[in-house]
Amino acid sequence: MASLAIGASVNFAYAYIMLGWAQNGGELLAAAWIASATIVVWSVARGHYQQIATRSTAAVTWSGLTACLRAFAVLITVIFVAKLSDDVSRGALICQFLAVTALTMLSRTVFCLRLRRWIAEGRVITGRMLIVGDSARVVSMITEHKFCDKLRADGKKIVRILAWNFVDDRESEKHLIDDVLGACRENSIDTVVVVPTARQSDLTERVTAALSETPATVHLLPFTVLGGPAPGSAQIGGQASIAVANAPLNALGKVMKRVVDVAIASAMLLALLPLMLSVAAAIKLDSRGPVFFRQNRHGYGNRHIRVFKFRSMRVMEDGAAFRQATRNDARITRVGRFIRRTNLDELPQLLNVLIGDMSLVGPRPHPIALNDTFAARIRLFHRRHNIMPGITGWAQVNGFRGETDTDDKMRKRVEHDLWYIDNWSIGLDLRILILTLFSSVAYRNAG
């Protein structure tokens, strides 16, 4: 916003002073918008904002220059393609570039210095971390290599350290893995560092495999080296590491998905308000009970969320009392049967999207009792919670919705959910939304 304000101000000032207001005000404002939006998108895509705490001040400052150069390259390309070069003053563009670049570099330098101060004072946390691994190596890294001190200097908060001694039985191994997963989910861990030894390579493999069911980035510190170069793909706490798992969406992906969610959900709520009021009135006239049904379900990172739906049953079952709806279920009301078959019962979840508990597209959130039933029987079941749950999803538009009375039905749904997580794109989200509205397959097994 600062870049937009200064860019527009410089453009308007130049047009007024030098050109006697010979330019169109809308064109000047559009040029400022294009440059500012490109700076933000490029900076998010390259992780400039995420890296401010870990990069040198000089690197942060010069990253502002590269962002501005690319932004104005895009702006000049747009002007050329749209054949606006005769209507836009070159002097105004040059002045805008110089002013915006100076502001961007100065603001990044000031923010970098201020952020480092806040991190040193413990007022800013850039990540929540869990360290798990062989106790001897963990102690060595903490004492000899100052691993934790370096992480804290980067703004990382080490929430827990789970160190193991030699584990030689399945019961102890299961207990350790449960502790690791529990720590990740209860403390919103975004990064896990696994510190193994050669003698426990099998255990390390099973721990890292289990961590794939969490939305955390997992770093494995090779046991062949400590403090020196390694065949790793990343670095953390001054140590070379191998990133064996990454969060499903990068920073740009999260921003893009959230922007699309808020824009479309807001527009749909406004457009569908008369329809939703009609459905609410029909529910009230058809049977006793509230219009909305709120149910606890698993959301992102296995956290509990309260999902809104139009009430379609005569009962309000939740928790352990939950019993999944079946075809021709006597508990379903007359209006409920219609709104379930047409997906109208899901419309209130647009509120969940705006709140931030859900996305328009993602794995459908299941009632907690249903998840608990299948999680122990289907491998990687909880990995479907590594992305925000959705009102509709890839499994649903492929016909895998409705009752899941067998392991095979649920396994097919999970397979489609995991494929979506591994292949996510904005284009895929839009395709799923269109199929939800117009494909007959999306309505299969509804009711």
Automatic annotation (TrEMBL):
<feature type="transmembrane region" description="Helical">
    <location>
        <begin position="262"/>
        <end position="283"/>
    </location>
</feature>
<comment type="similarity">
    <text>Belongs to the bacterial sugar transferase family.</text>
</comment>
<protein>
    <submittedName>
        <fullName>Exopolysaccharide biosynthesis polyprenyl glycosylphosphotransferase</fullName>
    </submittedName>
</protein>
<dbReference type="Pfam" id="PF02397">
    <property type="entry name" value="Bac_transf"/>
</dbReference>
<feature type="transmembrane region" description="Helical">
    <location>
        <begin position="25"/>
        <end position="45"/>
    </location>
</feature>
<feature type="domain" description="Bacterial sugar transferase">
    <location>
        <begin position="257"/>
        <end position="439"/>
    </location>
</feature>
<keyword id="KW-0808">Transferase</keyword>
<keyword id="KW-0472">Membrane</keyword>
<dbReference type="InterPro" id="IPR003362">
    <property type="entry name" value="Bact_transf"/>
</dbReference>
<keyword id="KW-1133">Transmembrane helix</keyword>
<keyword id="KW-0270">Exopolysaccharide synthesis</keyword>
<dbReference type="InterPro" id="IPR017475">
    <property type="entry name" value="EPS_sugar_tfrase"/>
</dbReference>
<feature type="transmembrane region" description="Helical">
    <location>
        <begin position="88"/>
        <end position="107"/>
    </location>
</feature>
<dbReference type="Pfam" id="PF13727">
    <property type="entry name" value="CoA_binding_3"/>
</dbReference>
<feature type="transmembrane region" description="Helical">
    <location>
        <begin position="57"/>
        <end position="82"/>
    </location>
</feature>
<keyword id="KW-0812">Transmembrane</keyword>
